[in-house]
Write the structure tokens for this entry.
Amino acid sequence: MNVEQAAKQLEALGSPTRLEVYRTLVRAGHAGMPVGRLQEKLGIPASTLSHHLHRLILTGLVTQERQATTLISRANYEAMNALLGFMADECCADAACETGTTDAAA
């Protein structure tokens, strides 16, 4: 993952409504959730949900699949894990090495 892609995904999650949509899909697991059920669960208008899902799909955080007449939305766990990894991979990389002991002089 590169910085630009991470920034786009984080920007997409920066909306409280989109974050709620995404968290709901993450909680739904790999089976995902029909769009109609997602709309009912969140209590938002269909057009609003469509707009927010579109932004999440464009960044790769959500996928959709049509099953007969039902549109299923799913969190893309691979993308989620890549974003989380990107954020954590270099944690403390520039920090001084710690020995696990405290220095009384510090």
In short: The chain has a mean pLDDT of 91.
